[in-house]
## 1
Amino acid sequence: MSEVQVQNNYKLSSKNLDVTYVNNKTGAEVTALQNINLDIEEGEFICIVGPSGCGKTTFLNTVAGLIKPSSGSLWLENKQVEGPGQDRAMVFQTPSLFPWRTVMDNVMYGVEIQKRVSAETKKRAQEYINMVGLKGFEHHYPHELSGGMQQRVNLARALTVEPSLLLLDEPFSALDAQTREFMQKELLRIWSETKKTSLFITHQIDEAIYLADRVFVFGARPGRVVDIIDVNIPRPRDLDIKRNPEFLRLMDHIWSIIEKESTKQGFE
Ligand SMILES: Nc1ncnc2c1ncn2[C@@H]1O[C@H](COP(=O)(O)OP(=O)(O)OP(=O)(O)O)[C@@H](O)[C@H]1O
Ligand SMILES: [Mg+2]
């Protein structure tokens, strides 16, 4: 262990985290994340927003254990993250389903690679298929499903491994606007049933505010946390909260920070 952590009750803690990419051929360095200090509570829904290239995916991949910090550390339930593990599951932008597998077999894939196929995990897979609204589609193939339904399969697959942390990287960005809003509402319903600590990346500010307990705003070059916004809008949340004055105030606030950051980066 590179560092001794003071015991705390946070689900996830990032301490002075830096990530630098080094190009193998040229040796050129890109500092993707600099000095990220964040604490996340058990059961929180966190959204991360920020301009393109500010290190959101890098942060999620580091939490997933796919990227090693260049310095600093990450702690999951007071244990240092040193690689991937069964306690974390990712949902990516594209559903990445196997076309030759049925919905059930795609959902079981996560537990299959963890060698945890059993009557119990099959039962659980069915429960999550029901929860994401795909009851009756167990034996369908991905090409028979809409984009939103495919993303539900992806979500059910992640939930079936029963991770203690759910990592979602722009999971709805490939969906049309209406399906996307519907999926946001569905995700909140599923989250309220499972209470899984979730880290959700999005480019859409309204999506972040609608879903999150707190929104982390990342700034660019190098990626760092520029603001943390508490969303004090009561739950359960209906989609019409997007017209509520507090919601619009938070939209304006986050938008102005991101605009400033994007301008700094030269994305005017
Ligand atoms: N494998 C890599 N090798 C070198 N540089 C990388 C690598 N992956 C990302 N980067 C760089 O690190 C920075 C952060 O990238 P990252 O993908 O984390 O940003 P992001 O916030 O997720 O962007 P987007 O919103 O476009 O998805 C960028 O400057 C990017 O070019
Ligand atoms: Mg990204």
Note: The chain has a mean pLDDT of 93.
## 2
Amino acid sequence: MDRYEVVIIGAGPAGLTAATYLGRYRRRVLILDSGRSRAAWIPQSHNTPGFPRGVGGPALLENLSQQASLYGAQRRQARARRLTRMADGFEILIDTAQGEVTIQAQFVLLATGVVDRLPDLAEIEAAIGAARVRMCPICDAYEAIDQRIAVLGEGDLGAREAAFLTTYSSDVTLLHLGATETLSDLASLSAHKVRVEPIALADLSVGSERVRLSSPGAPVQDFDCLYLALGCEMQSRLAVQWGAAHDDQANLIVNSHQETSIEGLYAAGDVVRGLNQIAVAAAEAAIAATDIHKRLRARDAQAQARL
Ligand SMILES: Cc1cc2nc3c(=O)[nH]c(=O)nc-3n(C[C@H](O)[C@H](O)[C@H](O)COP(=O)(O)OP(=O)(O)OC[C@H]3O[C@@H](n4cnc5c(N)ncnc54)[C@H](O)[C@@H]3O)c2cc1C
């Protein structure tokens, strides 16, 4: 059975940054990657440190990937299905193209991120690629200054995002799926001068060129961009199923070294409670990797002393 010092589950900014650190600490590291990092959606990021003219998500991932492999991190296209705590580490059951395989690790870093809930709209992927539809006001509201902004929501998350966006534009409309009575703070939306419209999803169309609302009996409305505020699914099941501490959204709760409440299991990036940002993912990864290395050094010293 393959045994690693560290297995990193997830190849987004958090997992790849941790792999670079651990590779440079000369650790035997494997990254498991089951598919699309959230960062792959990013057309152009303007708040990622060190890129004053912006960087596309795929290009950033490619750079992070090259950096990790430069320092020896191995990578495997596989989905981690089950994690089991052993006396001196973990067993990880993975699904590969060749079938199920079990591997072992002394420490595991979960960097599995979140998956955004997307509305069932034709051309949604093209619209995201063109930044016509967006998912993260903290990331790119600056690029929407003075635009006609719509927010698609289904509850208070949409209301909070719409209010946040009024820093950037005086023309913000909350397109609410279902009755607006479910919104707990209509007064605050009115104070922020956010228009609120109950809509049916079927009346909304998006594409790379436009966002259009065509409600029956009402004038057609076009918006410059649409923010989705439909929430996301935390990819924390591998830890939560063993009782790892988490909040009511299933975000993992970690200590100051990024260790979850399960000994030896670390977490970094969007899967951890906090701000879902590339800079945060990278910082958490650096902290986790350095603590794991420190503990492996202590184990190395104990093993030497026994010789
Ligand atoms: C449209 C859009 C624009 C954004 N713009 C910005 C921006 O400008 N600035 C910014 O800071 N942030 C931005 N973000 C947020 C940023 O993309 C995330 O904060 C960042 O990708 C989080 O990194 P991560 O490594 O935690 O997770 P992810 O990047 O989501 O990576 C998680 C990885 O784990 C893998 N995985 C999950 N489960 C398993 C499993 N069981 N086994 C194996 N692999 C698994 C996934 O396939 C994925 O590759 C944006 C997000 C979106 C959607």
Note: The first strand starts at residue 3 and ends at 9.
